[in-house]
Amino acid sequence: MSMSILVADDDPVIRRLFEKRLQDAGYTVQVAEDGMQAGSILAASHFDVVITDLVMPGDIGGIELLQIAKDKDPLTEVIVVTAHSSIDTAVSAMKKGAADYLEKPVNFDELFLRLEKINELRSLIRNADDLRNAMDVTESTAAQTIGDLELLVSDLQLKLDRVEEILKRREGNCEERIAESLSIIHE
Amino acid sequence: MIKITPEELKLITGYIHDISGIHLDASKKYLLETRLSAIAEEHGCTSYQELYQKAKRDARKVIEKQIIDAISTNETLFFRDNGPFELLRHKILPELIDARTPKSPRLKTPIRIWSAAASTGQEVYSIAIVLKELLGNDLSRFNIKLLGTDISDAAIRQASMGKYNKFEIERGLARDKLNKYFTLSGGYWKIKDEIRVMATFRKLNLMLPFGALGKFDIVFCRNVAIYFTLEDRKKLFNKIADVLEPDGYLIIGSTESLTGICPRFVPKRHLRSIYYQLK
Q1: Yes or no, beta carbons of B171 and A132 under 8 Å apart
Q2: B259 to chain A nearest CA, in Å?
Q3: Do A150 and B274 touch (CB under 8 A)?
């Protein structure tokens, strides 16, 4: 399952590098030159992963983009890229729901490992989801059958109780009691 | 992973039945190994026989609790199978309110609800959300007791905190309800205080007497009796019949049945859902 990735970085050289390396590795990649542009790309299409620089010019930085991505789809995973000096910000990004952070300069082997982990997790979730859906279908079909049977059995039991009462009764002649019982059975 | 011998399998499944009522047959060998191996190792045991001996000697019941937490199934969702909650909203609560509202406007309407296998709290909070949405501003005119019980300490702890990760929260719960009744903090969704305060949680083993809980108007006992033997199921639903008000309501799992289990209940249908009342 190939993942779609959106990269937001204001440095054109790094942007190009991300695009090339990720494409070569078989991912579908789109790039944005700042948070604003990334936000409008996100609004128009879905991405499995967003890789964003923490510090970008304009009103939308990495943290804001993280929130936009998570609001749109909580299952979109966000990796933030940060300078060593702003590790604290990266940690606070993870508290806000980022999947991971990478330090600059980006080590691509490390990035690919993180992406593989994300992909593995996604297939596990997908698998659990499929199982749950299969269970839901089985369960609702079974529930319908069981519900019908439950009511039918209860209804039959009531009839049986009434017939038993009639047959046990001492007064009245046999034929009348049989006729009465049969009418209950045929109700 | 420590392998379990046939003798140990018998010993351990018997022990689990004694402490929790959960009935596991020999086909659950793998489940026992995967779930109990780590506990055995943690306590320095090299066999399940040894773990059993240690658990029996442990006066603080630490190992017993760990085993229950490991074995009990916590598969649960918010509004899992919407039927019961629709039933609650459109049929049971309106009927109950009619029946229970006191003549004097100064008195509050009592409603007592018990979720007998509350697990990590999703069912209880789903019920609380239905109550909140249905009664809204009139909530203060009601005296609501909403009790959730479960055999697992770990489950009750989580239920009590009302904290869920994204996997626990995302299914079953519509986005608008999520934003309305939960707050996101530190990557977790936490139930808001206004909903949390409506519920109480405590540990309870359904195999033991529970008459001391008092009477209830509504009992949810969904998807827990399926883990019990037929005999234990009969005892359980008989005890539930004892704590249910004569006009009370029982809701069981959608694929469960009380036929041949407890003749004191009669099934009734509302739309697609089945509920039970005393004869």
Answers
A1: yes
A2: 7
A3: yes
Helix (H), strand (E), coil (C) string for A164-182: HHHHHCCCCCHHHHHHHHH
B89 and B147, same domain (yes or no): yes
How many C-beta atoms lie closer than 10 Å to residue B277's C-beta? 16
Q: Residues B142, B165: one domain?
A: yes
Q: Which helix (H) or strand (E) holds B18?
A: helix B6-20
Picking from B51, B71, B91, the residue at the C-terminal end of a domain is: B71
- Cα–Cα distance, B93 to B134 (Å, whole number): 9
User: Residue B15 is part of which domain span?
Assistant: 6-71
Is residue B95 located within the same domain as residue B60? no
d(CA B90, CA B134): 9
ipTM: 0.78
Query: How many Å from the N-terminal Cα to the C-terminal Cα in chain B?
Result: 51
Q: What is the largest CA-CA distance in chain A?
A: 104
Considering only CB atoms, B266 lies closest to which of A97, A144, A154, namely A154
Mind listing the pLDDT tens digit of every residue in chain B (279 residues)?
Answer: 899 999 999 999 999 999 999 999 888 899 899 999 999 999 999 999 999 999 999 999 999 999 999 988 777 676 677 899 999 999 999 999 999 999 998 899 999 999 999 999 999 999 999 999 999 888 999 999 999 999 999 999 999 999 998 878 876 788 888 999 999 887 789 999 999 999 999 999 999 999 999 999 999 999 999 999 999 999 999 999 999 999 999 999 999 999 999 999 999 999 989 999 999
Based on the structure, what is the number of domains in chain B?
2
- Rounded-to-10 torsion of CA A30, A34, A40, A41: 0
Interface with chain B: mutation pick from A154, A155, A164, highest number of B CBs within 10 Å: A154
DSSP code string of A118-186: HHHHHHHHHHHHHHHHHHHHHHHHHHHHHHHHHHHHHHHHHHHHHHHHHHH--SS-HHHHHHHHHHHHT
Q: Are residues B31 and B93 in the same domain?
A: no
Q: Which of A75, A144, A146 sits opposite B257 (nearest CB)?
A: A146
Question: Which residue among A132, A143, A154 sits closest to B267, beta carbon to beta carbon?
Answer: A154
Q: What angle do CA A147, A150, A151 make, to 5 degrees?
A: 90
Closest CA of chain A from B138, distance in Å: 33
B29 shares its domain with B126:
no
Tokens read off for B109 = 């309407």
